[in-house]
Design goal:
It is built from 1 helix and 11 strands; from the N terminus they run H-E-E-E-E-E-E-E-E-E-E-E. It is of the alpha+beta class. The relative contact order is 0.19.
């Protein structure tokens, strides 16, 4: 008799446990349903927000303008800005730099990394070369994408330059966004490999998305 009582009791106990489990599961499922529904609602309301008319065209993923603020490397005082603007013929490059030696030529390149952490600018790596070409001048067919030639300084050590480069892109696979810009102590001879023998680095900057203002 005693074992019969025990088994009835056990059955009752198992039944109660099963009921509790079902209740807990229902509770969790309800919670899950509510949180999923809420997430869907939030997602739906987010996707309805129209992107503002700003720096990036979100449909074509294109950027109209980029800017670089040049910072002097250790022991130098070269500074300035470079603005890159997308045009139909390529990218317009407008450089405005001060602190250079007077009346001299200075290698001017886009380098692989937008990384100016090293005091001497070497952290920017070599010339930006996504097409695996040899070093050249901006007008050469064979050139690194980053080969922008030279900046020429005036009697006060200032240099300005304004030209359109057909190789540069602000969007797409070979985009220059996030890369580095370097101004060198010496002249780029436009032929020595792999750097044009332009010497040490006077200033380094990072290509960023420009504020359209
Ligand atoms: Cu360089
Ligand atoms: Zn080069």
């Amino acid at each position: 008799m005693q074992s019969g009582h025990q088994s009835i009791f056990k059955l009752y106990y198992i039944h109660r446990k099963a009921e509790q489990l079902i209740k807990i599961n229902l509770h969790i499922m309800t919670k899950l349903f509510i949180s999923t529904f809420t997430a869907l609602l939030i997602f739906a309301s987010c996707t309805q927000v129209e992107p503002e008319e700003t720096d990036i065209d979100y449909e074509t993923q294109s950027i109209d303008q980029a800017v670089v603020v040049m910072h002097a490397t250790e022991g130098n005082s070269v500074e300035g800005t470079v603005v890159f603007t997308q045009t139909d013929e390529g990218v317009r490059v407008e450089a405005d730099v001060s602190g250079l030696e007077a009346d001299s030529m200075h290698g001017f390149h886009i380098h692989q990394y937008g990384d100016c952490r090293a005091d001497d600018g070497t952290s920017a790596g070599g010339h930006f070369n996504p097409e695996d070409m040899e070093h050249g001048g901006p007008d050469d067919e064979m050139r690194h994408v980053g080969d922008l030639g030279n900046l020429q300084s005036d009697a006060d050590g200032n240099a300005t330059s304004d030209f359109v480069d057909s190789k540069l892109q602000l969007s797409g696979m070979t985009s220059i966004m996030g890369r580095g810009v370097i101004i060198h102590a010496g002249e780029d001879d436009l032929e020595s490999q792999p750097t044009g023998a332009a010497g040490s680095r006077l200033a380094c900057g990072v290509i960023g998305v420009a504020n359209p203002q």
